[in-house]
Design goal:
The complex is a heterodimer of chains A (128) and B (219).
Chain A lengths: L2 H7 L5 H9 L9 E3 L2 H12 L8 H8 L4 E6 L4 E4 L4 E4 L9 E3 L3 H9 L13
Helix pairs in contact in A: 1-5
Chain B lengths: L11 H16 L6 H6 L23 E4 L15 E4 L11 E5 L26 E5 L15 E5 H21 L4 E8 L9 E8 L7 E7 L3
The chains are: A alpha+beta (128), B alpha+beta (219).
């Protein structure tokens, strides 16, 4: 997927806009990341099932929603990619808060950097 | 229009006997064809699901088998933790992994190598995950095919398997040492495991970590 080109088409920085733009493109069958509108719902459900003092709570998610927080993708290993208006989060499937990786980039800029191998993550595969 | 009550196809004695046979077969783990279950209007109860709620599919949720069954020899401590991956079988399927987990091993694992596709893996769109046997957060490798098996992403890999991995993580963060074993179980030559069995026991006396749990690999 050409994220540089996709960026030109985005009217705003909302994660929902980014996700819709991604979903309007054909997805590769063997992609490392699965983009879907359902992943956010599954994420919230898993927050309930895995609830503990160490993991992301529904209250955390509600708070982040004020910044348009949305989970947009899941890796083949079960980890999540989420964004707000200004940041991108790589969230491990454990939902451990202390293990979340935070990047001061909008989703589209994060993916451009990831594709260019400029992102260092202990959670995500080294390349798309 | 009045609702018409569905009339049973047999008399009540035959219906009762049929229902009992289905329930008994279900209790001993025999898969009864759906058509027969419908005919006798009964659903066999084959498992004892844990308190974890089942998502939308027909996975009953983790089945808790009681305590782990490690031998005294298997519970011997070692100043260093270790992980042993069992050999791939002739179908290149992961067959299991054993570990002695130490706190220092937390988050030392690696994410799965994009060039590795475990047996039976189709795609993320097929709800497949490249599941670590020993999870990354416990030091499991994503670069060793012996540690990767195809699991349904939701609900098997996460949240079901993750739920138990997180319990172990809590114990490790408390400074405990945990003996751990993960065993995928295959049905014949099927490339996807039918189920996965997790066993964990803390070496600390009175730790709550002492369990064996079976998770069916179905959506």
């Amino acid at each position: 997927m050409d994220f540089e080109q996709l960026k030109e088409t985005l009217p705003d920085a909302k994660p929902q806009t980014f996700l819709q733009a991604i979903l309007s493109q054909p997805q590769e069958e063997d992609a490392e990341l699965t983009f879907s509108e359902e992943i956010d719902e599954q994420f919230v459900e898993n927050c309930k099932i895995l609830a503990s003092p160490e993991t992301i709570s529904e209250t955390d998610v509600e708070h982040w929603r004020k910044q348009e927080f949305l989970v947009v993708a899941q890796s083949l290993d079960g980890d999540y990619l989420a964004g707000t208006l200004e940041q991108t989060f790589v969230i491990p499937s454990s939902l451990y808060k202390e293990d979340i990786e935070q990047f001061d980039k909008q989703l589209i800029d994060f993916f451009i950097a990831y594709e260019n191998k400029e992102i260092t993550s202990a959670i995500l595969p080294k390349e798309l | 229009m009045a609702n018409r009550k569905k009339k049973p196809p047999f008399n009540s004695t035959i219906m009762l006997i049929g229902s009992l046979i289905i329930l008994i077969l279900g209790a001993v783990g025999v898969k009864v064809p759906d058509a027969l279950q419908d005919l006798f209007n009964v659903q066999p109860q084959t498992t004892t699901p844990s308190s974890t709620p089942a998502p939308k599919g027909d996975n009953p949720g983790p089945i808790e088998n009681g305590k782990a069954t490690f031998s005294a020899e298997e519970l011997k401590d070692n100043s260093n933790g270790w992980i042993t991956y069992h050999s791939l079988d002739r179908l290149k399927r992961a067959t299991g992994a054993d570990a002695l987990l130490k706190p220092a091993m937390v988050n030392t694992g690696t994410s799965a190598n994009k060039d590795i596709r475990p047996a039976g893996f189709i795609s993320g769109k097929a709800n497949h995950s490249r599941g670590h046997l020993i999870g990354r957060q416990m030091g499991g490798s994503g670069d060793d095919p012996r540690n990767l098996t195809t699991l349904y992403q939701n609900p098997v890999n996460t949240p079901y398997m993750t739920k138990y991995e997180n319990q172990i993580r809590v114990a490790l963060d408390r400074g405990e040492t945990v003996r751990y074993r993960v065993t995928p179980v295959y049905n014949g030559n099927d490339l996807l495991a039918e189920k996965i069995i997790l066993e964990a026991k803390s070496l600390k006396t009175n730790s709550p970590i002492d369990f064996s749990v079976t998770i069916l690999n179905k959506q």
